[in-house]
């Protein structure tokens, strides 16, 4: 007589494997939250006073800006963005703060402005082609379209004056 073992039934094995696979798959469906850019401290930003502070004091209080303007009046920008993403989908902005510090030519603070989510531009492409202006040419027209145009009169190259006379006809 054989010794009897407590063998789990096939139903239990399948159920156990299903629970384990769901346990491994669920973390892939969790929402990913990220922060990019400047960490905004409202108290520090509110402490910047127009007419009192200058570039040095702003850098000492807020740190180096995310980026500075290159042309026109001098401006520093501090950009902060929080995003949410579900598994493999594209991240979506959940919060954004843009702080702009404006300076006069002497380097003194003229103003501090704030903006938020209203500055986000939503660009959604249509289809798989980018609309362009100009002629609509096929691939073969692009490749073979210039055959015969090289050296044609008025088209550049060297073929504009067949008798090689000077500009005055001499």
UniProtKB/TrEMBL annotation:
Source superkingdom: Bacteria
Record's keyword annotation contains Transferase: no
GO biological process, one term: protein insertion into membrane
UniProt KW keywords: Cell outer membrane, Lipoprotein, Membrane, Signal
GO MF terms held by the record: protein-macromolecule adaptor activity
Region (Disordered): 150-170
Outer membrane protein assembly factor BamE domain ranges (all copies): 37-110
A cellular component annotation (GO) from this entry: Bam protein complex
Compositional bias segments (type: Gly residues): 150-161
Cross-referenced PANTHER family: OUTER MEMBRANE PROTEIN ASSEMBLY FACTOR BAME
Protein name from the UniProt record: Outer membrane protein assembly factor BamE (Lipoprotein component of BamABCDE complex)
